[in-house]
Amino acid sequence: MITTILGAFRIGEIRNKVLFTFGILALYRLGAYIPAPGINASAVKAIQTNFGGNSILGFLNLFSGGGLGRIAIFALGIMPYITASIILQLLQVVVPSLEKLSKEGEVGQARITQYTRYLTVGLAFAQSIGYVFLFRSFEQQAGVTLIQNFNLAKVFLIVVSLTAGTVLLMWMGELITQRGIGNGISLLIFASIVARIPHGLQSWWNNPDQVFRVIMPFIALGVVAAIVFVQEGQRRIPIQYAKRVIGRRMTQGSQTYLPLRVNMAGVIPVIFAASLMAIPATLGQLIGQNRTNFATDVQNFFNPQGWHYVLGESLLIIVFTYFYTAVTFNPVDQAENLRKYGGFIPGVRPGRPTAEFLDRILARLTFPGALFLAAIAALPTVLINQTSANFFFGGTSILIVIGVALDTMKQLEAQLMMRNYEGFLK
After folding, report:
1. What pLDDT was estimated at residue 424?
2. Domain CATH number, residue 368
3. Residue 166 and residue 212 in one domain
4. 275 or 161, greater pLDDT
5. Same domain, 382 and 280
6. How many CB atoms lie within 10 A of CB 94?
7. Residue 168 pLDDT > 90, yes or no?
8. What percent of the chain has pLDDT over 70?
């Protein structure tokens, strides 16, 4: 792996892509420290006690790289874009016009991407308004003046700044995808979580439970090894290609395989589930400042450390794993492509029987992969409830970090393999 990274810097084109990616991520981290206009920066520290690691605000603060706790211009992070993507992908199932667009190739995908951007702006604008009044409610608790000269113009300025920050992050993520290495949106979330590692290490080292301090590194290593093992696990379906005559030349038959991963959806279901579960808790946090019973009950019900939250997130992870796998891998199209190019699975007829065979195998593979994702996401919460230890990072964060790192390294490896470079994947 280290050899691959060093090899990437020896090739000018790949080195420029890697440096471009690091440059965008550095700008993102810089924006997480620049306070939004109209915010009294000296009073921000007084309200940061409300962004504890076990609260929903602490969870959202983790995904924004600490920007929410600092009320920075990137306080919303990239989560409004993730939420908009979830909504558009769900609407493709129930809205015929969107489903038709999704099947029109690059033109249709470009139109859906444009709709996602518009929805992101709307969600970010609405979320910014809620956060402004939430931050103002913290002033009474902390005894400071966070927003001086509070009026409509000042609220509009802060809301526009936070919304523009999200739009800028969306653009930066797309730039990484087009000109850098890896998926830009995933890398932004990756950078947000990795930036909080020093705080996590400090929380672990200062924990009064000596047993927890000793066994925590071993638990972390075990979880990382298990995630890598499952993420890289695959079922290889043998594919046989018959002899074909192309023009005046006859091609020899060949044998290869179709790799079906245990977790074909990657970390996307975890991100989707975490985003959806954060919506009602955030609304409860916003409305709960008025001390309404219903809003307080909603906030407590969706507490990230409660069993209701763990159960709901686990179910959403399983559902999204099946859903996203079905979106990314179509057995009917795969069977049709095999038949078109003269390929077949030994012992299985081409056409519909091949599609049914692949669908059956994929359903069996996806189920343990979905259960594993749900178990890893729930593991830290279960350990907290059983041991009363403070885990700074949840299973969702660990899954995202490892999954994005593996996907990025594979893309880097692919770039090197195109130039006949032998890397660490053999």
Report:
1. 46
2. 1.10.3370.10
3. no
4. 161
5. yes
6. 8
7. yes
8. 81
Question: Which residue reads 């990382």 in tokens?
Answer: 224
Residue 190 lies in a domain: yes
Gap between the Cα atoms of 166 and 348, Å rounded: 50
Relative orientation angle of helices 210-232 and 395-417, to the nearest 10 degrees:
40
Is residue 232 within 8 A of residue 263, CB to CB? The reply is: no
69, 78, 106, 184, 320 from 187: Cα distances, Å? 21, 10, 23, 5, 20
Most confident of 4-8, 217-221, 315-319, 373-377: 315-319
Exposure string over 335-369, b if 16+ CB within 10 A, otherwise e: bbebbeeebbbeebebeeebbebbbebbeebbeeb
Three-state DSSP string of 239-308: EEECCEEECCEEECCEEEEEEEECCCCCCHHHHHHHHHHHHHHHHHHHHHHHCCHHHHHHHHHCCCCCHH
pLDDT in the model for residue 247: 59
> Exposure pattern of 122-146 as b/e (b: 16+ CB <10 Å)?
ebbbebbbebbebbebbbeebeeeb
Q: Where are the beta strands (DSSP E) in 285-403?
A: 343-344
Tens of pLDDT, residues 67-81: 888 888 998 888 889
Check whether residue 336 and residue 378 sit in a common domain.
yes
Total structural domains in the chain? Answer: 2
- Bridge partners, residue 256, by sequence: 239
Of the pLDDT bands very low, low, confident and very high (cuts 50, 70, 90), residue 425 is: very low
For residues 275 and 372, state if they share a domain. yes
Residue 201 lies in a domain: no
Alpha helices in 1-95 (DSSP H): 2-8, 12-31, 44-47, 56-63, 67-70, 79-94
Q: Evaluate whether 320 touches 268 at the Cβ level (below 8 Å).
A: yes
Residues 325-359: tens digit of each pLDDT: 887 788 888 888 888 877 888 888 888 888 888 88
Tell me the per-residue pLDDT of 226-264, one tens digit each, with 9 for 90 and over: 888 888 888 888 888 776 666 566 666 677 888 888 888
Structure-derived torsion over alpha carbons of residues 163, 109, 88, 98, reported in degrees to the nearest 10: 130
Helices 12-31 + 152-179 axis angle, to 10: 170
With left for phi above 0 and alpha for psi between -120 and 50, is residue 143 left, alpha or beta? left
Q: Taking the complete model, does pTM exceed 0.85, yes or no? A: no
Domain range for 378 is 207-391
Residue 231 lies in a domain: yes
Across the strands, what pairs with 255? 240
Greater confidence, 160 or 136? Answer: 160
Examine the domain organization and report whether 306 and 214 are in the same domain.
Answer: yes
